[in-house]
Design brief:
The protein is of the alpha/beta class. The protein contains 9 helices and 13 strands. The protein has 2 domains: 17-256, 3-Layer(aba) Sandwich (Aspartate Aminotransferase, domain 2), CATH 3.40.640.10; 259-359, Aspartate Aminotransferase, domain 1, CATH 3.90.1150. It has a 7-stranded mixed β-sheet. α1 packs across α6 (241-256), α2 crosses α6 (241-256) and α3 (75-87) packs across α4.
Length: 360
């Protein structure tokens, strides 16, 4: 059987070692002769699990003590609404820096709850690239500034931190979380759906500075209120216990692999391999400027819709799954998150070379 590599943008690959451990423990977790899904989320063993999970996550990112880590539900879309409900203050408005589909979607949702000013980060031109990122002159006018460091659909990543002075910077890191080292102290809040680099869909991580908690508007539902969740260990209702458990295994796995320094290097190596091939090909095209090329989501096209469809179908026959681009953009997309081994990228390039020779 051909080895299968899953390039899905999410739900995405989970490390094989993690899945094997979960499989081994499925019927007998911690000697309880039950699965982790069947034990009380408030029982001693599960409470120990979530405490260790947070400790491991904090270690990976070196999270300062004045930040809370919440394990919530509702995905990033839920946070699109929760953020203005919790962070809107006396200024009554927020600045949303847009660079693609998901940052635009976040801004649209926030408008239901507050006044939003929107600023496009992308410059007009043949390539997708960001322009000026210094907003320190206008940021004091806003309660917070929101942006998306990695646009999953278009493959645009923003490596430089927007300058916003003392205004809280909020980042949707759903598709770049734990892919590279960052300075958490530069952010007011970071949030991410789990289904790219953290674990399975169903759980969402929020890292938030403590001084930003406790300011929710009165009508904020309890499940979206950061203060309520922080006081309840993220468990005002029954949490997605199996997803939380799998995330805890992923954190331990990443630590065992050398932490984010080692993971970042692997991600850079994988991305370089694929982008170098694209740059040397006249058959495939990537329209993202080099300074903004995502380490996680590599988009490309032949420029011909019929050829693109043939590529996707034949790739699947060769064990290369989920290479179809998002319906918003089309073409192809290879999502090479943390769990994708470099062998998967090598297999993709081998197929791309073969397909190019057959169709030139």
């Amino acid at each position: 059987m051909t080895q299968v590599f899953n390039f899905s943008a999410g739900p995405a690959m989970i490390p094989t070692a993690v899945l094997e451990q979960a499989q081994k423990e499925l019927l007998n977790w911690q000697g309880q002769h039950t699965s982790v899904m069947e034990v009380s989320h408030r029982g001693k063993l599960f409470m120990e699990l979530i405490a260790q999970a947070e400790q491991d996550f904090r270690k990976l990112y070196n999270i300062p003590k004045n930040y809370k880590v919440l394990f919530l539900q509702g995905g990033a879309r839920g946070q699109f609404a929760a953020i203005p409900m919790n962070l809107m203050g006396k200024k009554g408005k927020a600045l949303y820096l847009t660079s693609g589909h998901w940052s635009l979607t976040a801004a649209k949702e926030a408008r239901l709850f507050c006044h939003v000013d929107e600023m496009n980060l992308l410059e007009v031109g043949d390539e997708l690239k960001t322009g000026n990122l210094d907003f320190s002159d206008i940021s004091p006018n806003y309660d917070y500034v929101h942006y998306c460091p990695n646009e999953t659909i278009s493959g645009v990543e923003i490596f430089e931190l927007p300058k916003v002075g003392n205004t809280p910077l909020v980042a949707d890191m759903s598709s770049t979380i734990l892919s590279r080292k960052i300075d958490i102290s530069q952010f007011g809040m970071i949030y991410a759906g789990a289904q790219k680099n953290l674990g399975p869909a169903g759980i969402t991580i929020v890292i938030i500075r403590e001084d930003l908690i406790g300011n929710a508007r009165q009508e904020t539902p309890s499940i979206w209120n950061y203060a309520v969740q922080a006081k309840s260990d993220s468990m005002i209702n029954t949490p997605p216990t199996f997803a939380w458990y799998l995330c805890s295994l992923v954190f331990k796995y990443l630590l065992s692999q050398g932490g984010l320094k080692a993971i970042e290097q692997r991600n850079q190596d994988k991305a370089k391999l694929l982008y170098d091939y694209l740059d040397n090909s006249t058959f495939y095209h990537n329209n993202v400027a080099k300074k903004n090329r995502s380490l996680m989501n590599v988009t490309f096209t032949t420029g011909n819709d019929e050829l693109n469809s043939q590529f996707i179908a034949q790739a699947l026959e060769n064990g290369l799954q989920a290479l179809k681009g998002h319906k918003v953009l089309g073409g192809m997309r290879a999502s090479i998150y943390n769990a994708m081994p470099i062998e998967g990228v090598q297999a993709l390039i081998t197929f791309m070379e073969k397909f190019e020779k057959q169709n030139q």
